[in-house]
UniProtKB/TrEMBL annotation:
CDD domains found in the cross-reference section: EVE-like
UniProt name for this protein: EVE domain-containing protein
Organism, scientific name: Litoreibacter arenae DSM 19593
Domain EVE: 13-134
Gene3D superfamilies reported in the protein's UniProt record: ph1033 like domains
InterPro entries: EVE_domain, PUA-like_sf
Length: 140
């Protein structure tokens, strides 16, 4: 079965913590956000900000491959329990979103590009995944 390609919208501090501990989480740790992932799915993280009240980032900041076959619950940065999936992260180059907007098929209105990232997690076509992953320096 081919992997699915997913964009996760989270703050860059959360991506760094997930990389450090080897997990992914989305949508404030909701179980439903990690339940439908499969081992081998690829996740590219888009960070709007460094943290909830942090500085703007507006870049793709991380890449992970799902390794955990079931969700698990853990205490997370917020002090609240969160549902996560184990994952392996790659070392990548941070890529600003704006130069890619015209090429991404899931951005249907580049003048209102932020609307595409309103969801905490969404699936993208392989062609978009390859474009972003290549820009991040991944060999895909």
């Amino acid at each position: 079965m081919s992997p699915r390609y997913v964009i996760g919208v989270v703050h860059s501090a959360h991506v760094a913590e997930g990389k450090r501990q080897g997990f992914v989480a989305f949508s404030h740790g909701k179980e439903a956000a990690v339940r439908n992932l499969d081992v081998g799915d690829k996740v590219i993280f888009y960070a709007p900000r460094t943290g909830f009240d942090g500085d703007p980032v507006q870049a793709f900041v991380g890449h992970a491959t799902i390794t955990g076959d079931v969700p698990r619950q853990m205490d997370y940065m917020t002090g609240m329990p969160a549902w996560v999936r184990d994952a392996v992260f790659d070392d990548v180059t941070e890529v600003p979103v704006r130069p890619l907007l015209e090429q991404l098929s899931f951005v249907t209105r580049p003048s209102h590009w932020g609307m595409a990232f309103r969801q905490g997690k969404f699936t993208i076509p392989e062609v978009d995944y390859r474009l972003i992953a290549d820009a991040m320096g991944l060999d895909v």
